[in-house]
Every structure is written in structure tokens, then in C-alpha cells.
Amino acid sequence: MSETKPDPQKIPQNQPSNTKLTNKQNRNADTKRKLYRETMENVRKQVRIESPTPPPQQQSDSIASTNESTPDLMELPRKRFYRQRAHSNPFSDHRLDYPTSPSTMDWSTIYPGTSLAHNRKVEIADIGCGFGGLMIDLGPQFPDSLILGMEIRVQVTQYVEDRIMALRKLHESDPGYKYDNIGVIRGNAMKFLPNFFHKSQLSKMFFCFPDPHFKQRKHKARIITNTLLSEYAYVLKEGGVIYTITDVEDLHNWMVQHLDQHPLFERLSKEWESQDKCVEIMYNSTEEGQKVERNKGSKFVACFKRLPNPDDCE
Ligand SMILES: C[S@@+](CC[C@H](N)C(=O)[O-])C[C@H]1O[C@@H](n2cnc3c(N)ncnc32)[C@H](O)[C@@H]1O
């Protein structure tokens, strides 16, 4: 049977076109996303303010019903409600909250429900944590350490916050691990790290699949540069480790070259990498790493130890 093109003259004028339908569907989807995010923002505020965990009655008050766009706290958040552009310019003047100094930061809002925030400082940082997969796998391995993800994109940060909140709720009555040592903040790691962390505070910093900024004129936006390495050396303790992984060989070479040239870092051996549990977790658990895996790409790892300060710098 031969196909004939419909005569545009014969299409009834009042029939909605595909474009109109799509626009309506888009509007509905936008409304759902907005409603979902507003509800989650209220829940987040409640959890931050009324920590440790809001009583069940208050939670059900804040969630009117359980249709598609009204979240259930026990459910992990859905990524499609947190859509955001793939990149955020680290040099833009984002409206970011940051403490004037590390001692003015109130960590109990990031880690509610645990006494850890009162007697321990953050020790492990995942810089540009994306959707938070690394922290979620690292958390149970270091239950006595506070782990922080720093992420520049608003909605990605909110997704991670909601993911952690749901995990805490899901594991609330577990006798063991409860995800209360992992947390996330929105921040630009290229600008404000010393506002969050004291000198020599961190023992591990992760840079997993950082944005590659391929063009030469954009290299200055890369998260590893000489200047930034000095800042990372300041917040890392002696013997602390910088972990890097990427699927972009050119970026791997760039990071290795800059770290090799920096007087306060020394590369750790492949043998060390093969015995370190964090390398294995970093290799397998980040969302970006899993994407690379699905696309059968390569992953390049390099880890560097923070050396002692030379005597004349003390
Ligand atoms: C390619 S993604 C990788 C995410 C995650 N590490 C992973 O492996 O799945 C890079 C992430 O770094 C974030 N990012 C880029 N520059 C940043 C900065 N200056 N401070 C904090 N986060 C940043 C981006 O928003 C993005 O989520």
C-alpha cells in the first residue's frame, strides 16, 4: 500500500497540533517539577531547622498526598525533577553562601542527628561531587569521619541533599550505619575552600571526573592549577591524599603534570593505588564513572600525597 501525504487543507483547524500538545505537556511537567521542588525545599528547611529528624506527623503535614509530584521522604529523589545545565561557570558571581571563616560554620545543620558534627571536623571532601555516588559508598567505610561533597550547581546539590535525607530516613531504625556522616553544600571550590576548612584539616580530597574544559583558552577554569594546588595543600594535612580520576587522557596528563611540579605533592605508586580501598570505590561509584563504564571508556587514576612543609616555611 502506498502512503499518501495528508492534504494540509483537509486537517480540521481545531485539532491541536503536536507542537501545542508538546507545549502543554511541557507546562505540566514544569508545574510538577516546581511543586516537587517546592515541597522538598520545605522538607529540607524543616530538617535543617528542627533537626535531628522531624517527627512523623510534621512530615506527613508537609506532604499533601502521594501523587507523582509530591515526594515521599522514604523514596530516593528522582533526577528528572532536578534538571540543570551540564556546566556552571566557576568564575561567575554566583550567589553563594559561605562562612567568613571555618570557625563560624555551623556543621550541625549539614550533619543533623549525629554528635560527630560537634566533636569532629570534616576530614574527607569530594570536590564537584555531582550526584553524590562517591560519598554514599565512602560513608559506611568511614563511619567515624565526616565526609562533605561540595557542588557548584544548585539543583544537583539539592538532589544530593534530598538523596541523603531519604537514605537517613530509610535507615533510621537500622542498628548500624545511618548515613549521618555524609553531607553536601553548594559551593565553588575554586573560590572559598579556606572559608570552610582550617589549615591541615582534611585527610582526603577527591577530584572525580572534573569538567575537562577542553579548549586551551578555558584551561584556566580547570580545578587543578598551580594556584589552587597551593590552596588544597593548605587545607590538607601532612600525609593527606589528593585522589584524581578522569576519562580524558589530556586532563589526566595535565593534573599529573601540575601535581608533579608542585613542591608539596608527591605521586603515590600504582602498587599503593591497588591496595587503597578509596581508589576502588572512586573507580566504581561515581555517576560519571558509571557512565564511562557503560560507554566502555578508559579511566585514568593518579593519587598524590601531601608532603611536609619545608622547614623554612613553618
Ligand atoms: C563531570 S561532573 C563529575 C561529578 C562527580 N564527581 C562524578 O564523578 O560523578 C563535575 C562536577 O563538578 C562540579 N563543579 C565544577 N566546578 C566546580 C567548582 N568550582 N566547585 C564545585 N563544584 C564544581 C560540576 O557542577 C559537576 O557537577
Automatic annotation (TrEMBL):
It catalyses: guanosine(46) in tRNA + S-adenosyl-L-methionine = N(7)-methylguanosine(46) in tRNA + S-adenosyl-L-homocysteine. Residues 1-73 are annotated as: Disordered. Pathway: tRNA modification; N(7)-methylguanine-tRNA biosynthesis. Keywords: Methyltransferase, Nucleus, RNA-binding, S-adenosyl-L-methionine, Transferase, tRNA processing, tRNA-binding. S-adenosyl-L-methionine binds at residues 128, 151-152, 188-189, 208, 286-288. The keyword RNA-binding applies. Residues 27-48 have a biased composition (Basic and acidic residues). Its main location: nucleus. Residues 11-26, 60-70 have a biased composition (Polar residues). The keyword tRNA processing applies. It comes from the Eukaryota. The active site is at 211. One of its GO terms (cellular component) is tRNA (m7G46) methyltransferase complex. Its EC number is 2.1.1.33. One of its GO terms (molecular function) is tRNA binding. It is an enzyme of class 2 (transferase). It is found in: Nucleus. Catalyzes the formation of N(7)-methylguanine at position 46 (m7G46) in tRNA. Forms a complex with TRM82. Belongs to the class I-like SAM-binding methyltransferase superfamily. TrmB family. This is tRNA (guanine-N(7)-)-methyltransferase. It comes from Candida orthopsilosis (strain 90-125) (Yeast). The gene is TRM8.
